[in-house]
Amino acid sequence: MKIISLGLGVQSTWLYLASSMGILPKVEAAIFVDTGKEKKKTLEYLEWLTQWAHNNSNIPIIICKEKNLYADLLSNDKYVKIPAYTKNNDRSIGMLQRQCTTDYKIYIVDKAIRSLLGLKKGERIKTKVELWKGISLDEIDRMSIPAEKWKISVYPFCGYQVPGKGNAEKIDWATKMTRIQIINEYGKNNFPIPPKSSCVFCPYQSDQAWYNMKVNEPEDFEAAIKVDEAIRNSTKKGIIAPAYLHDSCRPLAEVDFSVQAPDLWKGECSGTCHI
Predict the structure, then answer these.
(1) Which residues form the domain of 166?
(2) What CATH number does the domain containing 72 carry?
(3) How far is the C-alpha of 249 from the C-alpha of 54, rounded, in Å?
(4) Does the pLDDT of residue 271 top 80, yes or no?
């Protein structure tokens, strides 16, 4: 079984489009996990993609909304760790452990795969499943080894696949491409280019990304502020020092974004969220 891990970013969306058009081998399905507060522009793009798929592709897009990370972060009853910023005892700034990717992305994708395989609760996956990931050649260091033996992480734009607990293997059908080359394919086919996708409250965003959200996507920015305020005092969840979404360890609503970083992202490295 071949499955695309669809993050609705430039790379993973092109995986879906290319597979649908026969440029890449055909997959059985694409799985998109909505964590409860995707950016408004990302959800608008999802509407475009599902309409395009209805008219041009027979590859189903499975949208999972089983768990709501946004609601859980605002709740006092849920214990969720996101990579928020906090001050250490020596006043240096560190990041909290990231739990959200595993619990709200990877786990949900794996559960959807089990459903596609028709497995009952508790039944083990015995077949090999290719999980295609949209990591481009210029990001090849983000490739990773799956923890599960049944899973094969496939990177068509890098030219490798990595079996569970194994070593990278070359794939002869791959189309090695950088992010810029992939963006050019959208233009050649008159497709709209996907916006950068992430939860609106993702701490990995740069000042430039926060500034853009504040100015052009005020509803998303207000939702991020709500999360920032909700996580501040997380002592009941085992976090001693105040937590913040911004790396200055200041309330998001008070940060001056006039000094902008050149990159939109600050190094999310798992290859799971921003694909």
Answers:
(1) 2-254
(2) 3.40.50
(3) 45
(4) no
- Looking at the structure of the chain, the number of domains it has is 1
Instruction: Enumerate the β-bridge partners of residue 5.
Output: 31
Q: Is 91 within a domain? A: yes
| Contacts (Cβ under 8 Å, ≥6 apart) of 202 | 82, 268, 273
Distances (CA, A) of 52 to 14, 56, 103, 133: 13, 6, 30, 21
Please name the residues in contact with 139: beta carbons below 8 A apart, sequence gap of 6 or more: 179, 271
* Average pLDDT of the chain to the nearest whole number: 89
In a domain, 268, yes or no: no
Prediction pTM value: 0.89
pLDDT top residue among 155 and 274: 155
In a domain, 179, yes or no: yes
b/e per residue 79-100 (b: at least 16 CB within 10 A): ebbbbbbbeeeeeeeeebebeb
Are 25 and 156 contacting, i.e. CB atoms less than 8 angstroms apart? no
Residue 270 lies in a domain: no
Summarised one tens digit per residue, pLDDT across range 111-135 is: 999 999 999 888 889 999 999 999 9
Return left, alpha or beta for 159; rule: phi > 0 is left, psi -120 to 50 is alpha, else beta.
Answer: left
